[in-house]
Design a protein that fits this description.
- The protein has 387 residues and is an alpha+beta fold.
- It folds into three domains: 112 residues, Butyryl-Coa Dehydrogenase, subunit A, domain 1; 108 residues, Butyryl-CoA Dehydrogenase, subunit A, domain 2, CATH 2.40.110.10; 155 residues, Butyryl-CoA Dehydrogenase, subunit A, domain 3 (Up-down Bundle).
- Helix content is 52%, strand content 14%.
- Strands 1-4-5-8 form a four-stranded mixed beta sheet. The protein has a four-stranded antiparallel beta sheet with strand order 2-3-7-6, covered by helices on one side.
- The radius of gyration is 21 Å and the shape is globular.
């Protein structure tokens, strides 16, 4: 379908596609097998100025938005979900600064992120606080001109490899979620260390580590917004970032479909290509239709955010929910179409199924997305009934 991309958006998409196909694709199997961080690919993306597509020009970016970020993420995901999330998770860590940072904070941190010189990461999840973001136990106590952080963050994408972290910690436990605050923490700060790199089912080249804070002292100027705003920072950040996860899922689905379509055209059974069988045709038709429906939703929500609309929680959750469910269905069907070969690691399609699963889990499980969608629908219905 024609989504009426501008010349600049087409350039961004095509550049990301070229890098994905020419630079990433040849090393995907090795990165997955060895669980190796894709530092060389990140350098290529930085040299192409793709880290700054969603950052304002005055901070060294290209002046685009979430839509351009989604275009890049989708193209990278068509080749490797792990490479894509390494790129997109830097945007997740940057979004709180874009949304709530002071001018001084933006000038200090955004240029290096836009240039790809430094990766960012977002620290919310803890061993006992996943979907329940209000249950975090990491604390930040005020001591003069500093805050002192203590606690543990869990399953943090880009953990250890990122240089800049936005971290949610409790400044007043008695207030529950309203006692959370957001902070910028730099790698190398005394008292800030990392746990081991997690071994995962999919997105294996992506770094996932614990963030450990032991009397970690940061300047008071590193707080985002003000004390007690941490939960709002988190929710507004996810509203912006969930289309990025949806774009990752969309790219994974497209990549798996591309492989399946090519395979069914060339694989012969009973003297003819298997794509000539009606059952296979119907599978391909359903897969392609769901992918296109997901793309329309993801692109629409991304443009909605870029237009300045701030009430996007429902739509953002819908995009993440639908695209990730499509990714899982399409990648599973792709493996099925490959038959026994699809189950073998010699063929790339099984990796797409492994990578797809996480998109239903991180940045809010799909069960949480359904809660968000339903709660917003009920709230809107009540408001309309009072008019």
């Amino acid at each position: 379908m024609d989504y009426f991309l501008t010349e600049e958006q087409i350039m961004v998409r095509d550049l990301a596609r070229k890098i994905a196909q020419e630079k990433a694709k040849p090393v995907v199997a090795e990165l997955d097998r060895e669980e190796k961080f894709p530092s060389e690919i990140m350098k290529v993306l930085a040299e192409a100025d793709l880290f700054g597509v969603y950052i304002e020009e005055k901070y060294g970016g290209m002046g685009g938005g979430i839509f351009e970020l989604c275009l890049v993420t989708e193209e990278l995901s068509r080749v490797c979900g792990g490479i894509a999330v390494t790129y997109a998770a830097s945007a997740l860590g940057t979004d709180p600064i874009l949304l709530f940072g002071t001018e001084a904070q933006k000038k200090k941190y955004l240029p290096a992120i836009a240039a790809g010189k430094k990766l960012a990461a977002f620290g919310l999840t803890e061993p006992v606080a996943g979907s329940d973001a209000g249950a975090i136990e990491t604390t930040a106590r005020k001591e003069g001109d500093y805050y002192v952080l203590n606690g543990l963050k869990h399953f943090i994408t880009n953990g250890g490899d990122a240089e800049i972290y936005t971290v949610i910690a409790m400044t007043d436990k008695t207030k529950g979620a309203r006692g959370a605050s957001a902070f910028i923490v730099e790698k190398g700060t005394p008292g800030f260390s990392f746990g081991k790199k997690e071994e995962k089912l999919g997105i294996r080249c992506s770094s996932t580590r614990e963030l450990i804070f032991e009397e970690c002292k940061i300047p008071k100027e590193n707080i985002l917004a003000k004390e007690g705003m941490g939960f709002i920072v988190t929710m507004k950040t996810f509203d912006m970032s969930r289309p990025g996860v949806a774009a990752q899922a969309l790219g994974i689905a497209q990549g798996a479909f591309d492989l399946a379509l090519e395979y069914t055209r060339t694989r012969q059974q009973f003297g003819k290509p298997i794509c000539s069988n009606q059952g296979v045709k119907f599978m391909l038709a359903d897969m392609a239709t769901e992918i296109e429906a997901a793309r329309g939703l993801v692109y629409g929500v991304a443009r909605m955010i870029d237009s300045g609309n701030t009430k996007v929680s429902k739509e953002s959750a819908m995009a993440k929910l639908y695209a990730s469910d499509v990714a899982m269905r399409v990648s599973t069907e792709a493996v099925q179409l490959f038959g026994g070969y699809g189950y073998m690691r010699d063929y790339p399609v099984e990796k797409f199924m492994r990578d797809a699963k996480i998109t239903q889990i991180y940045e809010g499980t799909n069960q949480i997305q359904r809660e968000i969608i339903a709660n917003n629908l009920i709230k809107e219905s009540l408001a309309n009934s009072k008019e």
